[in-house]
Amino acid sequence: MSDPLPPGLYIVATPIGNLSDLSPHAARVLSGADLIAVEDSRVTAKLLAHIGVRKPMTPYHDHNADRVRPDLISQMADKAVALVSDAGTPLISDPGYKLVRDARAAGIDIHTVAGPCAAIAALTLAGLPTDRFLFLGFLPPKAGARATAIAEVASVRASLILYESGPRLAAALAALRDGLGSRDAAVVREISKKFEETVTGSLDALAARYADAAPPKGEIVLVIGPPGEAAPAAEADVDAALEEAMTRLSPSRAAAEVAETLGLPRREVYERALALK
Ligand code: SAM
Known about the structure:
The protein has 11 helices and 10 strands. By secondary structure, the protein is of the alpha/beta class. Strands 3-2-4-1-5 form a 5-stranded parallel beta sheet, with helices on both faces. It has a 5-stranded mixed beta sheet with strand order 6-7-10-8-9. The structure holds S-adenosylmethionine (SAM).
């Protein structure tokens, strides 16, 4: 038995692979909570078994959150309610932000038990600048929306962090190369698990590598370095290079060559090539 906790909301980060990454503080809070709000009770039951705890659990996920949130918040007035997700830090590409928002509005005490987060863990492995970074969560699955989302951040001077799945990795890398140019990047997979792997290279090289391979298994984070420091090529230089290249190549190949040489997003150069054609 552990000491009961004062009433309130306790946001508890849990391991993203290695169960021993559960902190003693997290274990103490989960042991002392009256109720644990979970994404999937089977996943959290395994974590609780690991620390020898049995607790009432209530589902809180994308499909029931709006319906169950008011009741959960009223329980926080006299109960210690912990919030966990299946892995990592709740609220980060996981449910919880509206629960915190509404709990705050209701005057509930809110505590966070900081811990593992795949985005931050991947950033530490990538060997790319860490002084400024932008977390993008998951890109939209459809090609058009994905290209728009990438174009929106193309000029941001920061490393980019994205969550991705194995089956979508090759398409995502190709879209990122087309939208951002061939920046340095890292594919970080299965962090803190048996088959942990970090593959680094240019977006061009990584897009080519995964285009030809079977989709990698497991969970993936992409980290992409910021745009280069060089002054952007003048429009006239781009046009001249394109005009020359299009005497030898199709617009799409010419755009690829010029984008690579001048370090520009391939999609942008291709649009210019079509306009010049
Ligand atoms: N809240 C979680 C966190 O703090 O990292 C993220 C939840 S999000 C629904 C799940 C995504 O996180 C996965 O699809 C994958 O992109 C990434 N992820 C989670 N665990 C990972 C791991 N061990 N290695 C690599 N990526 C991981």
